[in-house]
Recover the amino acids of this structure.
């Protein structure tokens, strides 16, 4: 408390002295401490969070590099907690796979990141920004440069960014910039930011020689004074590791280059220069999964960081923890000013050894800090020295009681004097301070040094004889009210005297100490100051969290253990018990699994169909990188393919002799080229990202007709644009080409990832998949059927350990189960053995996620972590990888196995499998094709005959093509049942099953006719949903009547066994009085906001009248992880006529540009008989009647009939008709139709008077007469033996010269239709007397069955094709609103 009071005074003094020199950037609200009420401010020394001074040691983190999401982020954040805050990056490419389409769901959710950070207690530096939450600063740009005469506009652009951020609400925290070196860019002038930052990588990136170090920057303080001494010194990006390129030396060597010694020396040099914001790049790098990487790096982005790619902790992490604890425990350090620096013979020499360099700082409160290091990083041996320090008793040379201080080779220390801890003062110590806290009125402080080094510490306020426990290598005596501690640390020693305890530890032991803060009403979750209640815990690998029970008697610790250890806990005296959490693991061998394999380069086979590929016919581009040759531009990006592999096929005829190719793909890219099926060769980029090769054809491989050159590419990512020279626009693919020997290519086609920018997998995102054949067909996805693949059980060559014997690509797929302990953190990886002489590459997929790109010849990566959440630690996993041999001799994998990189008994939360889509979810619409499966019921076959069911599939690439009639002819496939779901694979030419014979997965709960299955893959397995029934009422078929219901079961494996839901049926209206009945045939879906819904079929008033048949309902669903879904809040759920739920934002439907999607035909139409706006009849539909009338013959023929569905219980529909029949029997009009033997027809017909009742004839004597006629074709009246006197036919004569008529059909109530007409000259809106009622119809006569009624227009010759067309216009359908 004493130091805090003094600091408050000093802050005010500093403000008064220096604030006038600080300039607030234009447009900024200002964040200088003392002049701003913002939560985050700063002054010349440091940040302030609320009113507290804050040492900002930030850890760089990219959420997208850990796509398992919140549980994994929470684990990493808990490990970063000792330093705080975090610096968050976001890869924009994963959120905008297509320009203008933004997606911040799943691992892309910035909100989720900030919520987890807030929960853990981490402040955030956002890169880019976020307006609220734990964010303390927003970085406007990164390493961006100011305007120059040769490169104008940059500063203006920077100012525009800042203006835009502020205009969009970023006004509560300062805007920053990261200068690529401390040179003052945007510290002033146009584009000036609130808080200037800089970056530095002093040790470079040469991981090949990790023992070779650069010197520390000795001019950082001078640069601070030059740029702006009135603004705290902040490094937004300081070296925390190094990248490693393809063909590099591996991240273990990068870690050695930037190890804990580097962190010890270089970071303390920063602190000596009064850097009080230091953000490390990297603290956790993660994985460049999918195609996140840019060309200079490979899949791993471990970066040699303190937290490795598999989330394990390193000794560098421990060094950072020691520094962070010290800086958070030392607020005086943040206000200290330098008062000297140098060595013997240069500057101020505080030591007696010319090899020691010292920087001395002191605070206004009298606390002194001496940062000591060797004068050269080339000194790798230990150096002894003494040091002069200031105390309240004057200058003292330490140690005073024998021995010397020692720095090990490449070591730095911060020595303190007059250092307060609680009510005590550490007069000086040659050991470093880790942290301190006060427990039960006793002040605890932890001191440490390397084992074997001598230490000496003097503490004021000592009384009595000190008690020493835990070791014999340290002594303590009391002299004149002080305690003198000497010796050499080994393990941990506790020296207790009065109300103080000094813990002296060797450095390795000190790293096992943790000081988690306890929740306190007097502090936020972000506070790390020493006066925040805390406990000290020694021994574990990690302490994640500490809380007290409500009565304070139990200390609840969560954390991790990597070995058997003893926990030493220093806690409040109220604590009488401590709880902890702990187990081991085994992995299956991939040599013992069943492998499935298939060719993944069918593009080189004769007859390969590329008709759906994109034709590459662009001939010009505005890019600065122009093609080097060829008529067409073949850059993959131009055609929407931006990542991963892609393939180009060029067709030519003639006697060409070769092809010249310039190909560009990034560092270490590769490609193979084939002529027809003959391998020409491969090329790989190493030092260059582009190769120019001439490929000579063998004349025997050139065909007399069409020839195809196929090029398959493996790019290594898009370039960054560090220099602002548009390098990110560098092409990927064929940069130029020339066919040799005469002639040219007739056409080029390109294919990349499925859908290009319109990728189907919105969960894994735009960068997950490439364009290999197995990726396009979805073979990498969970649930892909491998029935037609070869298998290692009957083909010994079907194994990655055998490989392929020629150039090409083969995919290998297998499944394996894991049962790893739930209370352990067991990072699992896939480990390959390289064969450097073999040129092959592999793409690695686990459960549909791409988590590796292996290069056998270049390397260096051989271990590919498979993060939990992507990998199922407690269930089944599906692994696929390719072998692409770029050599004619083929390739094989020397060895590949699953390994675990650590086994840690852990208190981290359970990590379930990320809920990501399966094969069936993503390839129902596959290769830009839509698929519909249905069953044609052959009524003439007996109900118990399997021949009754004809199962068929239709496909289309555009549901609205050809006015909605662009669907394929049906493909018939054999299945002795009905209502199939696309969970299988068939040959779309023959209908032959490629998934093997059908198997019974589940027979339901015992209801009638289990049918309509849908299968869903979730983290815990497979969920099966079906429809079944309990009764058959009225005319509804078995199972789908009033007893219709939805039931579910689940299984760990797709083949079962399936366990039914305990509250089946999950959805039904059976045995209820609900208006909606016969509820069933459901399916589950998620909206764009992630909410679950069910669509299900239902009928209205299902006992008698339901002319609209089975309609679709939308029901809200809650589907929690590990549970069955709950429909509309009930068990079982019920469907109501009115329901509420979290509807997503409305979007305009996609409609055909040329026709109304509400209009339908009955059976396949003869389009030649329908004409829109024929000559002389604009804005009309001409129908020329067919010989077939609406009733037709059984299952044969096509009527000329077009209609829309009845979708309201009450409606009025009318149409204007011009019709002049010429031949007896010609007829046209309106119909109310449900099926061929159930319909009402209101039409004009030409009849022979001889056959018409005399009362209906006109007296003009004509042989042929026009009539208005209502026909009732009534299956129900005869099928159920009932007579319906209400439904009736009607016949009224019309003058033969009658002109246009208005025909009308009305549903006047739930049970009755009326049919009427009037002359078109009378407005259709006039009252009833102007309409002539021809007759009425009962709704029950057009009810029943599956489908609902249609109302529309027809024409027929009733046995012969009509010669007189009917003209229809002004068709109006008006539902009565609010009537159910």
């Amino acid at each position: 408390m004493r130091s805090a009071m003094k600091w408050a005074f000093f802050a005010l003094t500093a403000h008064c002295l220096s604030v006038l020199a600080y300039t607030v950037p234009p447009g900024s609200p200002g964040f200088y401490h003392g002049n701003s009420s913002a939560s985050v401010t700063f002054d010349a020394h440091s940040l302030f969070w609320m009113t507290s001074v804050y040492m900002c040691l930030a850890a760089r983190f990219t959420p997208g590099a850990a796509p398992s999401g919140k549980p994994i982020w929470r684990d990493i954040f808990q490990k970063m907690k000792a330093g705080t805050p975090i610096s968050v990056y976001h890869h924009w490419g994963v959120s905008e796979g297509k320009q203008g389409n933004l997606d911040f769901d799943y691992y892309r959710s910035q909100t989720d990141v900030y919520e987890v950070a807030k929960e853990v207690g981490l402040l955030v530096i956002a890169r880019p920004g976020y307006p609220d939450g734990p964010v303390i600063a927003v970085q406007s740009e990164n390493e961006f440069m100011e305007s120059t005469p040769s490169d104008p506009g940059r500063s203006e652009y920077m100012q525009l960014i800042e203006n835009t951020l502020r205009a969009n609400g970023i006004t509560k925290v300062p805007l920053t910039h990261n200068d690529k070196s401390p040179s003052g860019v945007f510290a002033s002038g146009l584009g000036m930011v609130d808080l200037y930052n800089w970056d530095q990588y002093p040790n470079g990136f040469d991981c090949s020689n990790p023992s070779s170090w650069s010197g520390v920057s000795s001019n950082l303080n001078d640069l601070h004074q030059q740029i702006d001494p009135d603004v705290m010194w902040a490094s937004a990006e300081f070296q925390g590791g190094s990248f490693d390129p393809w063909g590099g030396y591996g991240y273990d060597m990068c870690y050695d280059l930037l190890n804990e010694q580097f962190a010890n020396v270089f970071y303390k040099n920063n602190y000596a220069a009064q850097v009080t914001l230091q953000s490390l790049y990297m603290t956790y790098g993660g994985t460049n999964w999918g195609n996140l990487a840019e060309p200079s790096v490979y899949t791993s982005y471990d970066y040699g960081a303190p937290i490795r790619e598999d989330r394990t902790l390193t000794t560098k992490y421990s060094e950072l923890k020691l520094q962070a604890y010290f800086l958070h425990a030392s607020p005086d350090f943040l206000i200290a000013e330098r008062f000297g620096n140098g060595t013997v013979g240069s500057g101020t020499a505080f030591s007696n050894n010319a090899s020691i360099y010292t920087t001395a700082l002191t605070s206004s409160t009298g606390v002194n800090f001496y940062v000591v290091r060797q004068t050269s990083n080339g000194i790798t041996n230990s150096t002894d020295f003494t040091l002069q320090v200031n105390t309240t008793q004057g200058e003292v040379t330490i140690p005073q009681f024998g021995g010397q201080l020692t720095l090990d080779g490449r070591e730095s220390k911060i020595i303190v004097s007059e250092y307060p801890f609680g009510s005590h003062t550490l007069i000086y110590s040659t050991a470093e301070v880790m942290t301190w806290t006060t427990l039960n009125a006793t002040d605890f402080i932890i001191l440490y040094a390397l084992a074997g080094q001598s230490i000496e510490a003097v503490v004021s306020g000592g009384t009595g004889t000190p008690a020493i426990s835990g070791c014999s290598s340290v002594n303590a005596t009391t002299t004149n009210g002080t305690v003198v501690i000497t010796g050499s640390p080994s393990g941990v020693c506790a020296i207790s005297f009065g109300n103080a305890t000094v813990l002296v530890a060797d450095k390795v032991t000190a790293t096992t100490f943790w000081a988690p803060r306890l929740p306190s009403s007097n502090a936020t979750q972000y506070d790390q100051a020493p006066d925040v209640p805390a406990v000290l815990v020694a021994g574990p690998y990690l302490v994640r969290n500490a809380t007290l029970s409500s009565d304070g008697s139990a200390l609840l610790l969560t954390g991790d253990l990597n070995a058997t250890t003893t926990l030493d806990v220093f806690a409040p005296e109220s604590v009488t018990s401590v709880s902890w959490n702990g187990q081991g693991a085994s992995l299956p061998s991939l040599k013992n699994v069943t492998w499935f394999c298939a060719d993944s380069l069918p593009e080189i086979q004769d007859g390969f169909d590329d008709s759906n590929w994109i034709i590459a016919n662009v001939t010009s581009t505005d890019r600065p990188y122009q093609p080097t040759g060829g008529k067409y531009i073949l850059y993959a990006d131009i055609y929407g393919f931006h990542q991963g592999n892609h393939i180009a096929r060029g067709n030519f005829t003639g006697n060409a002799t070769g092809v010249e190719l310039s190909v560009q793909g990034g560092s270490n890219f590769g490609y193979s080229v084939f002529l027809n099926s003959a391998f020409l060769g491969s090329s790989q980029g190493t030092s260059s990202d582009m190769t120019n090769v001439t490929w000579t054809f063998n004349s025997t491989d050139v065909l007399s007709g069409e020839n195809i050159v196929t090029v398959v590419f493996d790019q290594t990512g898009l370039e960054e644009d560090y220099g602002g020279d548009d390098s990110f626009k560098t092409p990927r693919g064929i940069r130029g080409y020339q066919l040799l020997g005469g002639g040219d290519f007739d056409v080029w086609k390109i294919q990349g990832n499925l859908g290009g920018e319109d990728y189907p997998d919105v969960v894994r995102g735009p960068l997950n998949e490439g364009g290999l054949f197995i990726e396009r067909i979805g073979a990498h996805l969970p649930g892909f059927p491998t029935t037609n693949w070869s298998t290692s059980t009957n083909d010994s060559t079907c194994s990655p350990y055998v490989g392929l014997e020629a150039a090409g690509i083969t995919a290998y797929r297998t499944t394996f189960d894991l049962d790893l302990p739930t209370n352990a953190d067991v990072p699992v990886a896939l480990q390959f053995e390289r064969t450097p002489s073999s040129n092959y590459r592999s793409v690695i997929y686990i459960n549909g996620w791409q988590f590796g790109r292996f290069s056998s010849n270049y390397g260096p990566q051989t271990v590919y972590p498979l993060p939990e959440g992507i990998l199922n630690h407690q269930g089944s996993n599906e692994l696929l990888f390719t072998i692409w041999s770029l050599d004619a001799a083929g390739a094989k994998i020397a060895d590949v196995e699953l390994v675990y990189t650590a086994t840690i008994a852990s208190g981290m939360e359970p990590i379930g499998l990320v809920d990501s889509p399966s094969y069936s979810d993503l390839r129902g619409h596959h290769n830009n094709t839509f698929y519909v499966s249905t069953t044609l019921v052959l009524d003439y076959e007996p109900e118990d005959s399997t021949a009754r069911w004809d199962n068929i599939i239709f496909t289309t690439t555009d549901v609205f093509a050809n006015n909605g009639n662009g669907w394929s002819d049906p493909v018939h496939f054999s299945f002795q049942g009905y209502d199939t779901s696309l969970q299988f694979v068939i040959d779309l030419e023959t209908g032959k099953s490629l998934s093997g014979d059908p198997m019974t997965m589940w027979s339901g709960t015992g209801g009638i006719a289990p049918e309509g299955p849908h299968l869903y893959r979730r983290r815990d397995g497979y969920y099966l949903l079906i429809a079944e029934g309990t009764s058959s009422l009225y005319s509804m078929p078995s199972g789908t009547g009033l007893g219709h219901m939805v039931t579910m079961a689940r299984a760990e494996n797709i083949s079962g066994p399936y366990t039914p839901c305990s509250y089946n049926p999950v959805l039904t209206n059976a045995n209820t009085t609900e208006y909606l009945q016969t509820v069933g045939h459901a399916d589950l879906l998620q909206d764009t906001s992630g909410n679950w819904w069910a669509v299900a079929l239902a009928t209205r008033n299902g006992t008698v009248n339901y002319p609209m048949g089975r309609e679709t309902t939308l029901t809200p669903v809650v589907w929690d992880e590990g549970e069955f879904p709950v429909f509309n809040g009930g068990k079982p759920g019920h469907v109501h006529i009115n329901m509420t739920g979290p509807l997503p934002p409305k979007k305009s439907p996609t409609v055909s540009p040329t026709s109304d999607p509400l209009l339908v035909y009955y059976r396949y139409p003869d389009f030649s008989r329908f004409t829109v706006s024929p000559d002389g009849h604009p804005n009309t539909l001409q129908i020329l009647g067919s010989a077939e009338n609406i009733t037709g013959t059984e299952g044969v023929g096509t009527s000329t009939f077009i209609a829309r569905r009845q979708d309201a219980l009450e409606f009025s529909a009318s149409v204007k008709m011009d019709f002049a029949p010429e031949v007896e029997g010609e007829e046209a009009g309106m119909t109310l139709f449900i099926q061929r033997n159930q319909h009402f027809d209101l039409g004009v017909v030409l009849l022979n008077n001889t056959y018409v009742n005399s009362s209906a004839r006109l007296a003009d004597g004509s042989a042929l007469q026009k009539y208005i006629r209502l026909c009732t074709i009534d299956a129900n009246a005869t099928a159920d033996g009932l007579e319906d006197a209400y439904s009736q036919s009607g016949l009224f004569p019309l003058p033969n010269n009658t002109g246009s008529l208005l025909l009308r059909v009305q549903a006047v109530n739930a049970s009755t239709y009326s049919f009427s007409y009037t002359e078109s000259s009378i407005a259709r809106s006039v009252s009833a007397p102007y309409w002539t009622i021809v007759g009425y119809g009962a709704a029950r006569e057009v009810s029943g069955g599956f489908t609902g009624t249609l109302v529309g227009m027809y024409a027929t010759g009733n046995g012969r094709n009509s010669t007189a067309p009917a003209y229809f216009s002004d068709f109006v359908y008006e539902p009565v609103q609010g009537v159910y």
Q: What stands out?
A: The first helix runs from residue 2 to 18. The mean pLDDT is 87.
